[in-house]
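Record 1 of the preview.
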Amino acid sequence: MSATIQPAFAPLKGAQLVWGTLALSMAVFMNVLDSSIANVSIPAISGNMGVSPQQGTWVITSFAVANAISVPLTGWLTTRFGQVHLFMTSILLFVLSSWLCGMAPNIETLIAARILQGAVAGPMIPLSQSLLLASYKPQKSGMALALWGMTTLVAPIMGPLLGGWISDNYSWPWIFYINIPVGLLTAWATWMIYHKRESVTRQLPIDTVGLILLVVWVGALQLMLDKGKELDWFNSGEIILLTVVAAVGLIYFIIWERGQDHPVVDLSLFKGRNFTAGVIAISIGYGLFFGSLVIMPLWLQTQLSYTATEAGKVMAPVGIFAILLSPLIGKILPFVDVRKIATLAFMGFALVFYMRAQFTTEVDTMTLLIPTLIQGAAMSMFFIPLSSIILSGQSHDKMPAASGLSNFVRIMCGGMGASIATTVWDSRSTLHHAQLAEHSGSSYPAFVQSVQALMQQGIPEQGAWAIIDRTMNIQASTMAATDIFMVSAWMFLALIGLVWLTKPGKSGAPADAAGAH
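->
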């Protein structure tokens, strides 16, 4: 994503190349891991801090939104401070913010630390790509990206497993503390190898007004989505105010950015059909995918009594086929119409969510695992082809801005997807519970029989009522989750139309395509 002119450095060789690849890949691994490791730990975190699981999801969305805002700034920061210095600073601040997350005494402090963590993590992925490509001979760039890409696929597997195991066997702060030794080792190795390979720097004006407007409208939108259910949506003056601020901020942001010579976000890219359709498709698809990554562990733990470790095992296999198939997709990409591969991805996701929409409260582990495995195959055909569509036809000087803007929209939609999914899940659960409760009471023979059966087991009448209410809660929550999955399936099918609005063309730069992960 750097916009700087790179000095000619000879490719690394031998041990330096091995250690350089390992250090850069570990930084990416640590970053991607932290976006998924907290998912299965939300019940433990929210329980420990005395907040609801829905409020606990702020731990996820705050990281995602701060990360989204900081990504477009990577190009300007790299030009101003240099790739290596910016990369090193990002790693060290990531370590510091991880320590602050673990030490947080309450949910407000934890969310503040996660905002810092997400913000400083923004430059790490694009810069690790750029430094890695400069370390290899041009003809070996495919191998470099394959090695780099593996870390972005292994991390989502390790995140739920590691997060669940730590939450069950230790305490949740350790999901953040583990970043400290990894980050320090990565920073040391990176500095030893790359400190003499700094990029050219020059001073450019920063679009301060644009940056402020970006933070205001994105922050207001995310707060509105997160607090909406808690404050009864538009019956709350605070929600109305946040909505107005987000809408007005977005309008002013668009007007301001269109008139700047050095905008923080180059909105002129949306004039391209491939860019616009590709960004909308990948962003909405990622939002649906990320929302399910939040809903599934919460549903398994809060309603089906899975432990965090067990929930992690159910979610982890998503990366198996992604790892196995991604190299194959990368090889065949130049020889096929990428729109066909993207279509297969959306059809795969639609199948996954349709299968999940059939889940019941009696679902077994194997039934949970099958769509998760298929989802991994869909992932392998999702990121790289859609990124190729987005970047196709872009001039070399536009590549950093196109990559940054597409990643900004995608990551922001991921945070929004998590907020919307949990809000809809909560409201649909309430609706289904009310509908189920309409069939309870002394006028319904089935309900009376259930109460009597429980009382015959020695359970008091009030206890029997409580058990039945709990059963209705589980059923309502499951029905709400399957509602979301079914709507998601239809939305994935609808997104196929956007893919075919694009023009066929040469695939985009592989570096930026890989970076979509």
